[in-house]
Amino acid sequence: MRLLKNPFPQAFLVVWGLMTALPLLWVFISSFKDDNEILSDPWGLPGALRWENFGRAWTHGHIGQYFLNSLIVLSVSLTLTMLLGSTTAYALARYKFPGNRLIYFMFVGGMMFPVFLALVPLFAVVRNVGLLNTLPGLMMVYTAYSLPFTVFFLSAFFRTLPTAVAEAAMIDGCGPFSLFFRVMLPMAKPGLISVGIFNLLGQWNQYLLPVVLVSDKEENYVLAQGLAALAVNEGYRGDYSRLFAGLTLAIIPVLIVYAVFQRQVQSGLTAGQLK
Amino acid sequence: MATVTYAQASRHYPGTERPAVDKLDLEIRDGEFLVLVGPSGCGKSTSLRMLAGLEDVDNGAIYINDKDVTNLPPKSRDIAMVFQNYALYPHMTVYENMAFALKLRKTPKSEIDVRVKKAAQMLQLEDYLNRKPKALSGGQRQRVAMGRAIVREPQVFLMDEPLSNLDAKLRVQTRSQIASLQSQLGITTVYVTHDQIEAMTMGHRVAVLLDGVLQQCDTPRALYDTPANVFVAGFIGSPAMNIKTVALTDEGAIFGQMILPLSRDQIAKARAEGGDGKVTVGFRPEECELVSATEGGMPIVVDLVEDLGSGANVYGHAAINGDSERFVVATDRRTMPNLGDTVFVKPRTDHHHAFHATTGVRI
Predict the structure, then answer these.
(1) 3-state secondary structure B185-230
(2) B252 forms bridges with which residues in the sheet?
(3) Mean pLDDT over residues A62-90, rounded?
């Protein structure tokens, strides 16, 4: 009924939805085609479900290796980001000490600093510590890169949590550590989940940093980098089906994360406004 | 089973002029229910939080039994506290909320279970043990907060206005429950409230604070019968005592044509220390009567009549020494006057209180 009264918002959403979904759908469909079909009939459906495209992408295109690299890097960098970010944010939000504001504003400043300006010195620093072209180097840089926003977001979140609960926990017998891990951290769960997902997606899709820091060693490429390499190579070689299959493989995990945690992402974005 | 002693304990927030709590001296006996009462900002909550270890003590000391706890962290003081907004752990069930402190102390699981179940039974919370606080009503949350304190079996209970978030009816009901629970458990309790009725009905003794200074600490009856100064006289009792500063003669205090007699001793004290021929006199609304014109009462013109069902409060004004002064009288509903009537008020003999006109101290 309301649709008839004012169709504009719905129509707008439909158009936007199509604009977002169609290219994705096109990639998925194309990943089942062979090169001939892609070139001669780009809008048509595949003649058969060619799963071997994915196999080729996984092995010949090294997507499997890149996928694994991304997983390894993220499993460490994301854990570190969340652990360091939440502890830092908590200390900044709940404890008074000289220099508190200064540290906080340095993190906020870090958020505004364009990463492009830091690339060259960053490269030098990573090379000096001998972590160039290695996964641990990427882990550390990812962590440092994600911390400012994480700290900014979480300290705002910790500030909204009621002090009385912390006091009750201290009276119940919590020291600083059990207070943090057993009471405050669980209470901050909505915030942790949303900033965690945000970081997961950001680090998963990170392209610039690995291109600069892991450029010489192909077996250490992460997924985004690998896909780019694939696109360039396949473009010359003409194996478009492998390229689309690789793209699909890269997109799917991110889509799954979004689908599963959709509600938390939304509630995290609006958290801190209420209560 | 513990005593609590404040010895000259002070708290001075940086950047403020006067201390929030100023040299508080207070001894709380074993098993006693002591109520700290006063208007907002009087330092009652701060005093409690100093005892809890949530607030620094800048000067003086606090003892639990004979142990100096002034610089101990909250967890080493063996106290339990009930907060105004309950401060339940939102991510834990009712059971986990109550068991949390015991778990931290590595109490065996079986014993935790026994103690939590027992407290839950005492507070009629058995059906809610698996719920999260979010799914409870205000009264139930309040009981969980009580339960969390009870399972601890601490040396001292601290309660910071635990009833102020409940509706009026539930508040009265819970008031008596807390008082009987406390006498059942026999645990020393310090209770903060701004509500003097709560203070009078629950406390074995009541400590009245104003601006960080202890005004008087005594049994509810003594506070009511012999308030130590003008502030306590005006604060305790509802409706508040009629307190006026009037001229003093050799016979007593002059209220228009009515004279409230004072003893020679009182008159001498009232004249000392710059009393300036004046005295402050108070009489309670419920300790005076409406009399006929010939019985020597003070005439007042009725402004407002509150019919409470059980009785009535009559508000009126009278001209005393050229100023219009307000008075309240609690009266029987049968003798309830109408608005605009002139009635005659007479305090019952020897039921008035006299205070020094400038210092406010009882004389």
Answers:
(1) HCCEEEEEECCHHHHHHHCCEEEEEECCEEEEEECHHHHHHCCCEH
(2) B261
(3) 93
Residue range B242-356 in CATH 2.40.30.20: no
Determine the residue of chain B that is closest to A167 in CA distance.
B54
DSSP per position, A211-244:
HHHS-S-GGG--HHHHHHHHHHHHHHHT-HHHHH
Distance from CA of A106 to the nearest CA of B (A): 27
**Going by C-beta distance under 8 Å and a sequence separation of 6 or more, which residues neighbour residue B81?**
A167, A168, A171, B52, B149, B157, B158, B159, B160
| Cβ-Cβ contacts under 8 Å, B148 against chain A | 168, 172
Contact between A168 and B73 using a beta-carbon 8 Å cutoff:
no
d(CA B312, CA B32): 35
The domain spans of chain B are: 4-233, 242-356
Side chain identity at A128, as an amino acid letter? N
Is the model's pLDDT at A235 over the cut of 70? no
Helix (H) or strand (E) holding B258: strand B258-261
Best mutation target among B48, B69, B75 (most A Cβ atoms within 10 Å) is: B75
Q: Which of B79, B84, B85 sits opposite A171 (nearest CB)?
A: B79
* Cβ pair A171:B80 closer than 8 A: yes
Please tell me the distance in Å from A99's CA to the nearest CA on chain B. Answer: 18
pTM for the whole structure: 0.82
Residue by residue, DSSP assigns A51-111 as: THHHHHHHHTT-HHHHHHHHHHHHHHHHHHHHHHHHHHHHHHHH---TTHHHHHHHHHHHH
* Residue A223 tokens, joined: 């997924």
Per-position b or e across A163-176, b if 16+ CB within 10 A of its CB = ebbbbbbbbbbbee
The CATH fold of domain B4-233? Rossmann fold (3.40.50)
Low-confidence ranges of chain B (pLDDT < 50): none
The pLDDT score that the predictor gives to residue A44 is 82
Tell me the two tokens of residue B266. Answer: 């009182």
pLDDT digits over A117-127, tens only? 889 999 999 99
Using DSSP bridges, classify how beta strands B59-64 and B4-11 pair: parallel, antiparallel or unpaired. antiparallel
In words, the CATH class of domain A62-270 is mainly alpha
Residue B345 φ then ψ, to 5°: -105, 135
Give B351-354 contacts, CB < 8 A, sequence gap 24+: B351/B283, B351/B284, B351/B287, B351/B288, B352/B260, B352/B281, B352/B282, B352/B283, B352/B287, B353/B226, B353/B227, B353/B233, B353/B241, B353/B281, B353/B282, B353/B283, B354/B253, B354/B262, B354/B266, B354/B270, B354/B279, B354/B280, B354/B281, B354/B282
Listed residue (A42, A58, A71, A49) closest to A243, CA to CA: A58
Among B81, B89, B90, the residue with its CB nearest the CB of A171 is B81
**Tell me, what's the ipTM?**
0.85
- How distant is the alpha carbon of residue A191 from its chain centre? 16
Residue A270: pLDDT band by 50, 70, 90 thresholds? low
pLDDT at site A267 = 67
Q: Which of A154, A161, A232 is nearest to A194 (CA)?
A: A154
> Average of pLDDT values for A129-140?
93
Q: Which residue in A162, A172, A186 is closest to B101 by CB distance?
A: A172
Enumerate residues 6+ apart whose C-beta is below 8 A from A160: A272, A275
